[in-house]
Amino acid sequence: MAFTFDLAQTDHLLTTTRAVRKRLDLTRPVPRELIEDCIRIAVQGPAGGNVQMWRWLVVDDPEKKAGIAELYRRAYEPYIERQRQAVVEAGRRDANAIMSSSDHLAEVLHEVPAMLIPCYIGAPSPDLTQGALAGLYGSVLPAVWSFMLAARSRGLGTAWTTLHLAYEREAAELLGIPEHVAQVAMTPVAYYTGDDFKPASRLPVEKVTYYNGWKQR
User: Fold this and answer.
1) Does 112 map to a domain?
2) Torsion sign over Cα 96, 98, 100, 102
3) Is residue 32 classed exposed, middle or buried when 0-12, 13-18 and 19+ CB atoms within 10 A define those classes?
4) Distance in angstroms (rounded) separating the CA atoms of residues 113 and 191
5) pLDDT by residue (tens digit) across 105-123?
6) What is the mean pLDDT of residues 33-54?
7) Which tens digits make up the pLDDT trace of 54-105?
8) Which H, E and C letters describe the chain, residue by residue?
9) Residues 121, 136 contacting (CB under 8 angstroms)
10) Does a structural domain hold residue 210?
11) Which residues contact 147 (CB under 8 A, 6 or more apart)?
12) What's the domain range around 34?
């Protein structure tokens, strides 16, 4: 007998796993065992050739969290000014909400119970082809998304960020990461407050889906 999923529940999880920046509970510790449960699911994600070169660095030491948060904020300032201008020029109605959410995370990042930095053994060389680079990150990103889904189902909020990578070497020194290991991203991990997440506003599928040729329906 074929196994069938509860599609309503599955679709709800997939469409309501949001980037959580403001609604992170900064006062409630997240057990390491719970994070490892999420990683246990994450590593089931596809990995090219089953080489399993990802590694998962959890940061819950206060001083090290503060150090990563400082690097993040250092990169955040010039980035957010460009973003503010871009969303205003684009006429985004949600511009204020986006900026406020981003600002809040930057301010409180050092207070989150834990940070997760997914890494890849074998730092990409500058001369990698686009296909090779896509293959490398294609062995990590699905696993990170699986981690986020597993976290959401357990009451944990996450948010994909990459700003600290502007200072990747400094972060590596702080955390003892070898030179041949690449950091891919960083996500805060914390229980979220409230549970009224809903699907985000997105372009209609008909506008972004083509058949057999660019912009062909």
Assistant:
1) yes
2) negative
3) exposed
4) 9
5) 999 999 999 999 999 998 7
6) 94
7) 999 999 999 999 999 999 999 998 888 887 777 766 666 666 777 888 999 9
8) CCCCCCHHHHHHHHHHCCECCCCECCCCCCCHHHHHHHHHHHCCCCCHHHCCCEEEEEECCHHHHHHHHHHHHHHHHHHHHHHHHHHHHCCCCCHHHHHHHHHHHHHHHHHCCEEEEEEEECCCCCCCCHHHHHHHHHCCHHHHHHHHHHHHHCCEEECCECHHHHHHHHHHHHHCCCCCEEECCEEEEEEECCCCCCCCCCCCHHHHCCCCCCCCC
9) no
10) no
11) 38, 39, 41, 42, 56, 116, 118, 158, 187
12) 30-193
Q: In one letter, which amino acid is 2?
A: A
Q: Give the domain CATH number at 116.
A: 3.40.109.10
Residue 83 forms part of a structural domain: yes
Domains of the chain: total = 1
Label the pairing between strands 54-59 and 187-191: unpaired
Q: Is residue 198 part of a domain?
A: no
